[in-house]
Amino acid sequence: MPTTDITKIKIGKYMIGLVGFKDALKETADTYADQPDDTIARQLLDRLKKRNYIPQHVQKEYGQAFVREFRKFMGQPFTQEASTELEIKVLGAGCAVCDGLENLLMQVLAEMNLAADLEHVRDVEKFDHYNVTQTPALVINGKIIFAGKAPSKHQIKAWLQKAGIKQTSGGQMDKPVLIKNIPFSESQNLLDLVEYEEGRVVSRTFAQNPSVSLTLFAFDAGEGISAHTAPGDAMVQVLDGEALVNIDGTDITVCAGQVVVMPADVPHAVTAAKRFKMLLTVVKRPLGIQS
């Protein structure tokens, strides 16, 4: 079955995943290209409310974002929303250094009391958009900050301070979106939300914060994530196929319907004995609590 079309766009302070957004743009492109903003907003809202939960009290904010994305899609002038939030991307296919950078970023964000939309991009084809040839790479608010070896905590703090993002409060869009990239208020089949791709590991992140991360993966046969440690207990729930999990040198075969927990700070690796899909939940140690 095809992967559900989920597109992330910025609405207010947050990146929101919307089902069928690209199709809605294509459906309205020819008919509404010359229409005023309020007409475009109304048309896109009517289409997207059928597959997405859009609360009544924030429909104005959604409509404004829809118009902005529509104008961009059509190549027309648009008003760019000022950034009031950090948008951070780690580019890396899943090596230990890339995973370590992601974990370090979450620790720094928590220490600095900064809110951010943090995403680990593992799809190598998306790296081309940033003209990145080395990984890991760090992108803050759309700008490549560095690529190559992992930076120190001090360097990361300096870059975040230089970004100059100030937290805001109040307003209708201030409620944080804790789970993303999946439709709200409707049943979903996890197996359909990520597809196998030859020679690759594909992932979709549902939650990423200093306390917990929740990510859906699809591994092609023979692909894997190399040995690394995590700052919390990590539970692998295999949904399809068969995984080989190595925990501190011991191999464990995990099949569909089974789970295995990889302890915090203990080296572990995951390899596809056969093509498999898994839901990975990492529950992290609260700051200030040492192992």
Characteristics of this structure?
291 residues; Glutaredoxin; Jelly Rolls; seven-stranded antiparallel beta sheet
Could you explain the architecture of this structure?
This protein is α+β, with helices and mostly antiparallel strands and 291 residues long. It folds into 3 domains: 6-74, no CATH class; 86-163, 3-Layer(aba) Sandwich (Glutaredoxin), CATH 3.40.30; 196-284, Jelly Rolls (Sandwich). Helices cover 23% and strands 33% of the residues. It contains 5 helices and 13 strands. It has helices at residues 21-32, 37-48, 59-74, 96-112, 153-163; strands at 6-11, 14-19, 86-91, 116-121, 137-140, 143-147, 201-208, 212-219, 224-228, 232-247, 250-255, 259-262, 268-284. The strands form 3 sheets. Strands 7, 8, 9, 10, 11, 12 and 13 form a 7-stranded antiparallel sheet that branches. A 4-stranded mixed sheet has the order 4-3-5-6, covered by helices on one side. A two-stranded antiparallel sheet has the order 1-2. Helix 4 (96-112) links the parallel strand 3 (86-91) and strand 4 (116-121). Helix 1 packs antiparallel against helix 2 and helix 2 crosses helix 3 (59-74). The longest helix is centred in the middle third of the chain and has 17 residues, at 96-112. The termini are far apart. Mean pLDDT is 82; it is low at 167-174.
Any idea of the CATH class of the largest domain?
A: Mainly Beta
Largest sheet: 7 strands, antiparallel
C-alpha Rg, in Å?
A: 20 Å
Count, helices: 5
Helix-strand string: EEHHHEHEEEHEEEEEEE
Number of individual domains: 3
CATH superfamily of the largest domain: Jelly Rolls
Instruction: Output the CATH topology of the largest domain.
Output: Jelly Rolls
- Count the E strands: 13
Structural class determined from secondary elements: alpha+beta
Helix share bin: 10-25%
End-to-end distance, in Å? 43 Å
The mean pLDDT is 82
Low-confidence stretches: 167-174
Shape: globular
Specify the CATH architecture of the largest domain. Answer: Sandwich
Oligomer: single chain
Strand fraction:
25-35%
